[in-house]
């Protein structure tokens, strides 16, 4: 059985969202996830307890709205296989431009950097590193900038698609599964799953 890593963040419960969507909760039942990387902005204790029930191995960084969680670090690094994975909420970064994210990945000395704060899923490879934003698991609105999307209109954005990610690391390779809660033309919600892969470049062995 694969060791799955849940990457989740920007929940904003109960300030901006009531709860994690039931269709997501059904997928995140205990026993399926080996470790959770939470990018902050929970922002209440029941949500923390829910994440602990999904996977006891819960790593959390401080989000800009986690004002009472003064002891949480701003970033953390975990190692799986041959990959170092760093994660941060992102409010200490000046933007979500690739060069800014690359600088943070280099600072943390990681192959994969997960960041949040924009509430929108994103994943891309840049300068041999892999960057992942799991989006908001609740679809909570955002009042800040949205990276490549630009600032939210009228101080908020109502079109946020709820999303989270699962990672499966095997050696130097990572498979990212992206779960998004989408509505069809009739307003019926369905969970769409997409797969993105990344393989860490391996430097050729020096000739003797």
From TrEMBL:
InterPro entries: Calcineurin-like_PHP_lpxH (IPR024654), Metallo-depent_PP-like (IPR029052), Phosphodiesterase_MJ0936/Vps29 (IPR000979), Vps29 (IPR028661). Residues 4-141 form the Calcineurin-like phosphoesterase domain. SUPFAM superfamilies: Metallo-dependent phosphatases (SSF56300). It holds the Pfam family Metallophos_2. One of its GO terms (cellular component) is retromer complex. GO terms for biological process: protein transport; retrograde transport, endosome to Golgi. Keywords: Protein transport, Transport. Coiled coil: none annotated. It comes from the Eukaryota. Belongs to the VPS29 family. This is Vacuolar protein sorting-associated protein 29. It comes from Neoarthrinium moseri.
